[in-house]
Design brief:
The protein is α+β, with helices and mostly antiparallel strands. It folds into two domains: 49 residues; 116 residues, 3-Layer(bba) Sandwich (Chalcone isomerase), CATH 3.50.70.20. 39% of the residues lie in helices and 26% in strands. The protein has three helices and six strands. The chain has a six-stranded antiparallel sheet. The structure holds heme C.
Length: 187
């Protein structure tokens, strides 16, 4: 190897090392950025698909353990059994007879098809679950709908926007004097 050849070789090694370092720096800079984009997009997408249109209301976790406010029954053609349950804020307000309901109140209406008991003919029991309906009180966020945000869900997914446009109108027309809530605490 001539001295000139070895010099050229050394130079090309140096270039390769510089390039490798550059690539590494670029990768290390980009990876956290890409990861943060992926993380930010993941939950954002799932909240949009699980939240009701217009109101952005979601099914509250743990509602199946909430206390009963009152059961209800819906005649044909729906033929449903219902149970309205509430979180602690709702329950406290009901027990104190306090209206309007405070911000943070959540009421959930569970519904099932009416089914004849297999063990006892005159007994009616819950069949398949049909809808889960939610009302959330936030007087600022939902100022134009009496302070209530609405959500109707089938199999955990919100129904379309058109159905959500009907909620407030009916609650407003029939239950305005009771802060837009039909259900009274069962005695
Ligand atoms: C045509 C009238 C009507 C419409 C439209 C309506 N509701 Fe109701 N809602 C009622 C009645 C009546 C009750 C009382 C319980 C029952 O009979 O099932 C009720 C009860 C509820 C309750 C329990 C709290 C309460 O007010 O008693 C929730 C939560 C609820 N509705 C959510 C909704 C949502 C969400 C929508 C829209 C997707 C909606 N409702 C549309 C009539 C209506």
């Amino acid at each position: 190897m001539t001295p000139i050849e070895s010099k050229t070789k050394k130079r090309s090694y140096a270039t390769a090392i510089t390039l490798a370092v550059l690539v590494l720096v670029v990768l290390l800079t980009c990876v956290p950025y890409l990861v943060s984009i992926a993380l930010a997009e993941g939950p954002a997408q799932s909240t949009t698909s699980d939240a009701s249109p217009i109101f952005g209301v979601t099914i509250p976790p743990g509602y199946k353990q909430w206390e009963l406010i009152a059961p209800a029954e819906e005649a044909a053609p729906l033929d449903e059994l219902r149970a309205v349950v509430g979180n602690q804020t709702a329950l406290d307000a009901y027990q104190a007879g306090k209206l309007p309901f405070p911000d943070g109140t959540i009421l959930v209406k569970r519904a099932w098809k009416r089914k004849q008991s297999g063990e006892f003919a005159s007994a009616t029991i819950p069949g398949a679950a049909t809808t889960v309906q939610v009302m959330v009180k936030d007087s600022k966020k939902y100022a134009t709908t009496g302070g209530w945000g609405f959500g109707r869900f089938i199999n955990g997914k919100p129904v379309d926007e058109a159905q959500h446009r009907t909620c407030f109108a009916c609650h407003d027309a029939r239950a305005k004097v009771h802060d837009y809530i039909f259900t009274r605490l069962a005695p």
